[in-house]
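Saturday, quiet lab. Running sequence design on the structure tokens for the scaffold JK sent over.
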């Protein structure tokens, strides 16, 4: 009986050690390769055209939503809301970004409602937030 308990404890320790060595996949912004290209005001809409370099450390494609905090532009009167969601530049109706493994640049557009002041506070990319999506959320 003592041998069985020792064997089970050894197997448990080995499994614990093996799982601690695994690094889970991360998706993060590479700020050095990301920038705000331009913005346009059309009617009641403001579009910010951006290039965002994203690093996916995993080996599989990841689905994410990308948010920008444009609260400074809201405070300055350019936007009615400060939190904007990105959409792929080639899919104005979509909000899901498919991030490939490795390091890649993505063309995205943040769209917000125009508040009446045609001045952007700065020419910087807003602070960005990545929200990973589950498979159920992307279907």
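Result came back. Writing it out in full:
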């Amino acid at each position: 009986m003592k041998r069985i308990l020792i064997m089970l404890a050894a197997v448990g320790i080995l499994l614990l050690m093996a799982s601690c060595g695994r690094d889970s996949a991360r998706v993060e912004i590479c700020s050095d390769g990301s920038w705000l290209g331009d913005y346009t005001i059309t009617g009641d809409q403001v579009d910010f055209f951006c290039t965002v370099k994203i690093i996916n450390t995993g080996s599989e494609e990841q689905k994410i939503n990308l948010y920008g905090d444009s609260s400074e532009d809201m405070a300055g009167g350019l936007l009615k809301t400060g939190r904007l969601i990105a959409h792929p530049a080639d899919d104005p109706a979509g909000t899901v970004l498919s991030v490939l493994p490795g390091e890649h640049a993505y063309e995205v557009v943040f769209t917000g409602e125009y508040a009446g002041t045609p001045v952007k506070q700065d020419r910087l990319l807003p602070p960005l937030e990545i929200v990973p999506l589950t498979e159920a959320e992307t279907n």
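Notes for JK: Residues 15 and 21 are 10 Å apart (CA to CA). Residues 18-23 have pLDDT under 50 and may be disordered. Ask whether to fix the surface positions before the next round.
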